């Protein structure tokens, strides 16, 4: 009987899966608090399977935004997965049949765990253990959170709306390294506050993305000047 | 039912982006602006989502216990708390504010 081979990539993949999956509870609870059904919340974790976009989708719905605004915010936040896909394609060299499978498991964590390894075998193991591991825990705990959120009743009484703010801040925090991302964040915060009274819910987030692109373009020009 | 349609369309759109990464020509990666712009959009969107979830109520700006939750989350992050702890702290602080009679 072959013994399981717990290489460093496999071990770190499994510990990422344990840690990250658990916050699927918060996504599940916030999903039903936003007005999605338990099944819709779970469908996002199964099919969309990219935390930032999922939180964005329910965040826009919770604020009273339209389905189209929610889709746009989720899609824009998912752009980085396309970049990961390009990098992972070069790293893992999947066959034509496997590329669509790899794509579903392409998330922040599988990308990070693959690129943290040196040998190509380990990169492959790192990608799959983190990708499949997080998929399993994320979906189980989404269901747990959705059931718990559903049983809680009034989400505001339990501070679930405040938990959502914390959830987005927790996703943003590690990306605020250096002056440029901090400048983008600050400008987008101000822009969102200014847009909110004048536009339908959900739209300020889309406008903020446009503002982020403009600030980025200015920063690029300054860097090359 | 309408919301189901948007859930499925959004899932299809985000999957298409992931897959596009595997199918697009590699030469795109040689252009450093691609990952750089994606990172900038991610930061801008998340910052906007933090604010809109904290102070927006429909089209109005409301300052309520959610601000306590956000402040508590900042403290938790400063202490390098794990993600799930940050989320729980934010929720507990907001609930505590409401329990104490704040909006």
Q: Main interface pair?
A: A-B, 101 and 80 residues
Head-to-tail CA distance between termini of chain B: 33 Å
The secondary-structure element order of chain B is HHEEHH
Reading side by side through the largest sheet of chain B, how are the strands ordered?
Answer: 1-2
Strand content of chain A: under 5%
Q: Portion of residues in helices of chain A?
A: over 70%
User: Structural class, from secondary structure content of chain A?
Assistant: mainly alpha
Helix content of chain B: over 70%
Q: Helical element count of chain A?
A: 12
General form of chain B: elongated
Mean pLDDT of chain A: 92
Brief write-up:
Chain A is mainly alpha-helical. Chain A is built from twelve helices and no strands.
Description:
The complex is a heterodimer of chains A (225) and B (103). With 225 residues, chain A is mainly alpha-helical. Chain A has twelve helices and no strands. The termini of chain A are far apart. With 103 residues, chain B is mostly helical. Chain B has four helices and two strands. Chain B has a two-stranded antiparallel ribbon. Chain B is elongated. The model of chain B has no long low-confidence stretch (mean pLDDT 92). At the A-B interface, helix 1, helix 3, helix 4, helix 5 and helix 6 of A face helix 1, helix 2, strand 1, strand 2 and helix 3 of B.
């Amino acid at each position: 009987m072959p013994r399981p081979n717990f290489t460093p990539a496999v071990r770190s993949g499994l510990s990422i899966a344990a840690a990250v999956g658990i916050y699927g509870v918060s996504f599940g609870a916030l999903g039903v608090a936003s007005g999605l059904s338990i099944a819709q919340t779970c469908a996002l974790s199964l099919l969309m399977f990219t935390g930032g976009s999922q939180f964005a989708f329910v965040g826009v719905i919770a604020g009273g935004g339209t389905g189209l605004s929610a889709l746009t915010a989720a899609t824009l936040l998912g752009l980085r997965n396309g970049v990961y896909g390009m990098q992972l394609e070069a790293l893992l060299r999947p066959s034509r049949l496997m590329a669509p499978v790899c794509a579903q498991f392409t998330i922040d964590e599988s990308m990070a765990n693959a690129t943290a390894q040196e040998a190509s075998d380990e990169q492959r193991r790192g990608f799959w253990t983190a990708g499949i591991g997080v998929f399993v825990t994320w979906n189980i705990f989404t269901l747990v959170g959705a059931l718990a959120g559903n049983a809680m009743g009034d989400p505001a009484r339990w501070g679930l709306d405040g938990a959502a703010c914390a959830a987005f801040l927790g996703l943003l925090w590690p990306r605020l390294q250096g002056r440029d991302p901090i400048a983008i964040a600050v400008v987008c915060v101000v822009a969102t506050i200014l847009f909110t009274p004048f536009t339908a819910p959900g739209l300020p987030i889309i406008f903020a993305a446009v503002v982020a692109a403009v600030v980025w373009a200015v920063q690029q020009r300054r860097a090359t000047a | 039912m309408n919301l189901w349609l948007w859930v499925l369309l959004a899932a299809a759109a985000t999957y298409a982006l992931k897959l596009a990464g595997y199918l697009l020509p590699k030469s795109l990666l040689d252009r450093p602006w691609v990952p750089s712009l994606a990172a900038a959009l991610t930061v801008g969107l998340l910052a906007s989502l933090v604010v809109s979830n904290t102070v927006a109520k429909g089209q109005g700006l409301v300052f309520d216990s959610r601000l306590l939750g956000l402040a508590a989350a900042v403290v938790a992050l400063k202490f390098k708390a794990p993600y799930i702890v940050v989320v729980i702290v934010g929720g507990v602080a907001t609930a505590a504010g409401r329990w104490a009679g704040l909006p």
